[in-house]
Each structure stands twice: as structure tokens, then as C-alpha cells.
Amino acid sequence: MNQFISLHKEAGCKALRQLLRQPVATMLILLMLAIAMTLPLALYLGVQSGQQLLGQMNEVPTMTLYMQIDAKDSDNQTVKKALQDNKQLEKVVFVSKQQGLEELQHSMGNQDLISMLDSNPLPDAFTVTPQVDTPEEVAALQAQLAQLPMVESVKMDAEWMQTLYRINRFVHQLLWFLAITLGLAFALVAYNTIRLQILSHREEIEITKLLGAPASFIRRPFLYLAIWQSLLAAAISIGLCYWLNSQTQPLLSEILQPYGVHVVWRFFNLWEVLTILLVVCGLGMLGAWLATRQHLLSFKSVQ
């Protein structure tokens, strides 16, 4: 067990010394890897912070149920009870025809609308707030409410809700696309970096192989080299995300303040940081493993 730990410690220290031996080249590689990581990480923070914004902007619109003109109070009470018993509705507000006329009069300002009318042409109405997630569920709920007795029609701002839903869905798809493609790019960069390191130590590796060293012994320093590169690049990327958050937060607050919306860019929590480090190290090790495997296979074919 002590020998196993000693071998890994020696390989890790050797890889770190190899990075420090070429500081300029190492920094360029780390910056390239960090920039590739920063794009999906910054978008992830934007998506998570945007959930708060969507919540404040009311992603699901309200619906208005218009009763028939000849609907009686008993009909209104029947519909009101059916709405209150509906589990898909969060809030139900009754707006009488008299209240609707007064609001219309108030919106028209100085014009005396009431004196111009022989009778109130407005119907009683209910304003309801659904608690459903998708446009399909909202459309199904609208059709269900339209079947209630003495309900003339059900209106809602479906286009605005569907636009918000599609934007949110598009951003999530873009996030996954960037995460997968840039993750593969990260692994390819790590592969190419380790391959160049292997070529620069080709003679040393071949001599070690001729002396009977197993593949794991040859591969171990390069795996630790990939781990060090991944950890340092991840640290730089997280630092870039923090800088980006601090720079964009004042501008975001200035843009949204006139609309009464307050959004704070969130940052990674501890578990997210650990997940990032694990995923990045896994991608780096994958690239290093493929590079060393290719070299060892080519060496065998030469033999």
C-alpha cells in the first residue's frame, strides 16, 4: 500500500514539475482550456439566474372567463365553486359586470361612458391563475374551463407565455449543446497536449518499455499531468465566471430596475464546484488515456 501511494505521489510531483518547467507554454494551454470551459459555465449561471427572472415575470399567464350576458348569480356561484375546486388553478378572482364597467370608465378618463349607455353591456368574469408548466397543459386547461356552464369564452395571453417557454427551452438546449461540444473539445485539447508531451519523451518511454515497465507505469505521469492541467484550468475558468458576474451585475440591475424586477446573478455552490472539478478532470484523463494508449499501441506494432 505504501509503495502504491509512493508511486502515485512521485508521478503527481513529476507532472507538476513538468508543468512548471515551461511556464509560458503551460499558461497558454491553461488559458485555452479555461476559455473553452467558461462559455458553458457562464451560460449555466445565466440559466440558473434566469429562472428567478422568469418567476418574477409570471411565465404562465392569467386566464379570463367571460360569463354569458344572461348569467345569474347562481350560475356565477356554480362556476366559482368549480374553479376553486380545480387543482390546476392557483388563484380565482371574480369581477362583476358593474366592477368591469367602473374600471372601463376609469381607463377612459374624463369621458362619461355610463351616461352614454342604456344598460351595462359587459358580462361577469373570472380571472384565474393556472399552475401548469407547458403550453400544451395550458391549452388543455383553457378548453376544460370553456366547458363550464354559462361560460361564453376563455381568453389568455397564450402567445406571450409560449414565447417565454420557448426562450427558456432554447437556452437549456443551447447549454447542453455547448456543454457537450466544448467538453469534447476540452478532451481533444488534453489529448493533443499529452500527445505532444509523449512525443518529446518518446525515447525515454521506449527505453522504459524495453526494461519491462507495465503500461500503467508509463501512463501514470501523463494522467497526473492531465489532472493538474484540468484543475488549474478549472480554477481559472471559475475565476473568470466570478469576474464576469461582478462586472455584469450592476448593468443587469440598471436594465431591470425600471421594470421592478430585481435579479441577482448567482454563483456556484460547493457541490457545483466539486462537480465541475470532477467532470473536467475526467475529461482531461480521458484525453490523456487515449493519447498514451495510441502511443503504446504504435510502439507494439513497431516491435
TrEMBL record:
Transmembrane annotation, as ranges: 24-47, 174-194, 222-245, 265-291
Subcellular location: Cell inner membrane
Keyword Transmembrane helix (UniProt): yes
Start and end residues of each ABC3 transporter permease C-terminal domain: 177-293
Membrane topology type: Multi-pass membrane protein
Keyword line: Cell cycle, Cell division, Cell inner membrane, Cell membrane, Membrane, Transmembrane, Transmembrane helix
Record's GO cellular component terms: cell division site; plasma membrane
FtsX extracellular domain boundaries: 63-154
Record's keyword annotation contains Flavoprotein: no
Gene Ontology biological-process entries: cell division
A Pfam family hit: FtsX_ECD
Protein purpose: Part of the ABC transporter FtsEX involved in cellular division.
Subunit description: Forms a membrane-associated complex with FtsE.
Similarity-based family: Belongs to the ABC-4 integral membrane protein family. FtsX subfamily.
Name of the protein: Cell division protein FtsX
Organism of provenance: Snodgrassella alvi
